[in-house]
Amino acid sequence: MNKIGILFGKERSFPHALIERINSKGIDGILAEPVHINKVMQGETTDYAVILDRISQDVPFYRAYLKNAALCGTAVINNPFWWSADEKFFNNCLATKIGVPVPKTVILPSYQLPADTSNESFSNLDYPLDWEAIFNYIGFPAYMKPFAGGGWKSVYRLDDMQKFSETHPETGELVMMLQEEIIFEEYYRCYCIGGKYVRIMPYEPRNPFHLRYVADFSPSEEKLKEMESIVLKINKYLGYDFNTVELALRDGVPYAIDFCNPAPDADINSVGQENFDWVVETAANFAIEKAQSNKPGKDNLTWGEYVKRSSGGADSLI
Fold first, then answer.
1. Please, what's the b/e burial string for 149-182 (b: 16 or more CB within 10 A of its CB; e: otherwise)?
2. Whether 14 and 73 share a structural domain
3. Is there a contact between 45 and 19 (Cβ–Cβ < 8 Å)?
4. 113 and 56 fall within a common domain
5. Is residue 197 in some structural domain?
6. Rounded to an integer, what distance in angstroms lies between the CA atom of residue 299 and that of residue 182?
7. Are 188 and 201 in contact (CB under 8 A)?
8. Does residue 91 contact residue 103 with C-beta atoms inside 8 Å?
9. What share of the chain has pLDDT > 70, as a percent?
10. Is a pLDDT exceeding 90 seen at residue 104?
């Protein structure tokens, strides 16, 4: 029996619909269920050929469980080792090397000293920073947001240096990015599943949360193909099995705004029925595909081109 486990938190509509859809297909040897954990012993296998992870970003215990499961042969969606290492600033840095347009971005040290550090811990940091060069590079308006994390938490829109000076203290120990604002004509949120299935969804981030998928943008076939190519390229290099990429079109050019979303929103009440049906069906088919191709006791994880080329000693990312 190739069991597919869904690891989730408080969300309900997507995990339960996914389990029901996988089981409704009646494929011999395939069974989906919520993951059940009552003990975690080092180096011991789980009951699951595949686990779709929706919550370990918030629960370190689950992340440790998933790494052990992956070590023993479970195909974890997404790769818990890469997810642990990845963050939004690196994503932007990588994009600049693979030819994907992104907003001008800098990373800032936390306003407050991290716990268990002192001024002496930052002997290599010139402070104050070269604020003039930073602000000239980014320009205003700008966004300040955490270099890791998501869900529109601690995101600030800044009109000038004064607003930055007033706002930065509010961020405490968070490491923040300062990013150019892309004044866009159109905006899209794009699911990417299995590194090959893409759904491009018109999205309006300026709307209230429950209305963000209510947008009437109508891209041409050529623009859809261009955006799909960008989405696939990003996920090819990052190695995510399940991710969303947000694209803002300025003067017709798609800029990748946010593409580190390995547990993206898939709730029917926000994404809408058609998008929900697509993500449930596509995730079900991909999870089944992974279960059927699982090689017990082997590495069944997906590794991105960045990691594979780096470990192989390639001279270039491109």
1. bbeeeeebebeeeebbeebbeebeebbbbbbbbb
2. yes
3. no
4. no
5. no
6. 40
7. yes
8. no
9. 98
10. yes
Three-state SS annotation for 56-88: CCCCHHHHHHHHHHHHCCCEEECCHHHHHHCCH
- Please state, in angstroms and rounded to a whole number, the distance separating the CA atoms of residues 30 and 305: 30
Q: What is the pLDDT of residues 111-137, one digit of tens each?
A: 999 999 999 999 999 999 999 999 999
The domain total for the chain is: 2
99 domain residue, yes or no: no
Q: Look up residue 185 and give its amino acid.
A: E
Structure tokens at 252: 């017709």
> Can you tell me the distance from the alpha carbon of 218 to that of 41, in angstroms, rounded to the nearest whole number?
52
Among residues 55, 32, 11, the alpha carbon closest in space to that of 286 is found at 32
Helix intervals (H) in the chain: 13-24, 60-71, 80-85, 88-97, 131-138, 161-167, 221-238, 268-271, 273-292, 305-311
Q: Give the tokens for residue 210.
A: 């429950």
**Which structure tokens are listed for 258?**
């946010």
Amino acid residing at 140: F
pLDDT at 317 > cutoff 70: no
Residue (of 27, 24, 25, 34) closest to 2 by Cα position: 27
DSSP 175: -
Q: How far is CA 72 from CA 99, 139, 156, 226, 279, in A?
A: 36, 49, 42, 39, 28
In tens, the pLDDT along 243-288 reads 999 999 999 999 999 999 999 999 999 999 999 999 999 999 999 9
pTM: 0.95
Q: Which of 264, 215, 261 is nearest to 238 (CA)?
A: 261
Backbone angles phi, psi at 289, to 5 degrees: -55, -45
Q: In which domain, by residue range, is 144 found?
A: 104-180
Q: Are strands 105-108 and 197-202 parallel, antiparallel or unpaired?
A: unpaired
Lookup: tokens for 312: 């192989």
